[in-house]
Design goal:
This protein is mainly α. Helix 1 crosses helix 6. The radius of gyration is 19 Å and the shape is elongated. It has two domains: about 10-70, Arc Repressor Mutant, subunit A, CATH 1.10.10.60; about 75-190, Tetracycline Repressor, domain 2 (Orthogonal Bundle), CATH 1.10.357. Helix content is about 75%, strand content about 0%. It has nine helices and no strands. It has helices at about 10-30, 40-45, 50-55, 60-70, 85-100, 105-115, 120-140, 145-165, 170-190. InterPro entries: Homeodomain-like_sf, HTH-type_TetR-like_transc_reg, HTH_TetR, Tet_transcr_reg_TetR-rel_C_sf, TetR_C. Keywords: DNA-binding, Transcription, Transcription regulation.
Length: about 190
Amino acid sequence: MTKSSGEPEDPRVTRTRRDVIRASAASLLERGWTATTHAEVARRAGYSKATIYAHWPTPVDLMRDTIARICEDTTPPPMGGDLREDLHTSLSALAWTLSEGRYDRLMASVIEHAGDNEDVRELQERLYETATAGIRDVLTSHLRRDDVEPCLAMLVGAVLVRATYEGRSVPPGFITDIIDRALTDVEHGDGH
């Protein structure tokens, strides 16, 4: 990272920013947005609140960089070329991320804070795009463009409801069933 003047950023500043964002990401995933205060992040990272405020004056500033880091660290599983197998792999990864990766708490926190705040709505959209990128890629590579969004909504919605709202595991059989149901209309409907 460089300063706007083109000079290299001080390595101490780089280290501070890295440490704080790591601490903020851990807090956000473990405890949610409301608990991820400047004071809590300062405590976790081992820096003063003044340092946190100097780099991130508002909670949204801190969350923007934190969510950017979480999204950058998220990579979809590789595709093998088979529609159903690739969907199964991608949906299983989403289910794991929601339950074990605590992405459910993160998404709920961002949705809660989005309200009328355009900046937070942008974070919400980025999280959704990141979480569904692998599934969207699989669908895009196999289906007509008009079929991608409805299938994506059905597949992701089913996993979200099961893992987040119901708080239940998402076993392989459940994923196979929702894939079969979502693809039935596409494969046997009037779209092809």
